[in-house]
Specification:
Number of helices: 11
Number of domains: 2
Oligomer: single chain
Strand content: 15-25%
CATH architecture of the largest domain: Alpha-Beta Complex
Shape: globular
Order of helices and strands: EEHEEHHEEHEEHHEHEHHHH
Low-confidence stretches: none
CATH class of the largest domain: Alpha Beta
CATH superfamily of the largest domain: 2-enoyl-CoA Hydratase, Chain A, domain 1
Largest sheet: 6 strands, mixed
Strand order of the largest sheet: 1-2-3-5-7-10
Radius of gyration: 19 Å
Number of strands: 10
Mean pLDDT: 96
CATH topology of the largest domain: 2-enoyl-CoA Hydratase, Chain A, domain 1
């Protein structure tokens, strides 16, 4: 499929979606729709086990939603815009296998919300994060009040959203917003190394583990534990479970078949 505002590259077990509106990569309705369509295309490829979400350029992962598109929209049109944004974010979050965000430069507003929809976040040292919507007379509309709070807690989340202030990469790592911070020149390599490590894991267990973690975010502990046990049992029915345990007993490296 041809895309206008993203680049999609699939090489073996790893697919990369790159936001392609440099230098600031503003998120408009077209790029959001294309992210959703790209995930659907990736889902049809049985070989892919990890998705990387990257950006073209080093100044910004995405400096926010496209204000030029939004400024004259009616409330009903903005509702539809936010629904499209939500669909893009949920396509990443609901994709069955791991999704890694590679974050360089400004990651603000909708850009931060898109990154938070991914499972793991690797940031360059030049990355800056924020939810500055308050300075535009609005509030986050693509998951900022919800995903940010779940990641860093309500107090830190309120501080970022109510002040609109940015935080640097080191602070984002300390808050738990990103998993790792590396020098700018190393960030793509670090993300690819993580992707390759994840791609070497058994596919069924990867799916079940992500599903259990996601489900547990929205239910009580008992229900989450029930889902975990069911996921464990399903993963145990895979051929890779037998291979993994046999390899451990035989003191050799497991040869997973993703079955």
């Amino acid at each position: 499929m041809a895309y206008e505002m993203i680049l999609l590259n699939i090489e073996g077990r790893i697919a990369t979606i790159s936001l392609n509106r440099p230098p600031m990569n503003p998120l408009n309705s077209v790029i959001l729709r294309e992210i959703t369509e790209a995930i659907s295309e990736i889902e049809a490829d049985e070989n892919v086990k990890v998705v990387i979400v990257n950006s073209v350029g080093e100044r910004a992962f995405a400096a926010g939603a496209d204000v030029k598109e939004m400024v004259n929209l009616t409330p009903v049109e903005l509702y539809d815009f936010c629904q499209g944004f939500r669909k893009a974010c949920e396509s990443l979050n609901r994709y069955a296998l791991p999704v890694i965000a590679v974050i360089k430069g400004l990651t603000l507003g909708g850009g931060c919300e898109l990154a938070m929809a991914c499972d793991l976040r690797i940031a360059a040292e030049n990355a800056k994060f924020g939810q500055p919507e308050i300075n535009l007379g609005i509030l986050p509309g693509a998951g900022g009040t919800q995903r940010l709070t779940r990641l860093i807690g309500p107090a830190r989340s309120k501080e970022m959203i109510l002040t609109g202030d940015m935080i640097d990469a080191a602070t984002a790592e300390r808050y738990g917003l990103v998993n790792k911070v590396v020098p700018l020149e190393d960030v793509d390599k670090a993300a690819m190394e993580l992707a390759e490590k994840l791609a070497s894991k058994p596919k069924v267990a990867l799916k079940m583990a992500k599903a259990a973690i996601n489900a547990g975010q929205n239910v009580d502990l008992g229900s989450g534990l029930d889902f975990e046990i069911l996921s464990f049992a399903l993963a145990s029915a895979s051929e890779d479970k037998l291979e993994g345990m046999t390899a451990l007993l035989e003191k050799r490296k497991a040869n997973f078949k993703d079955k």
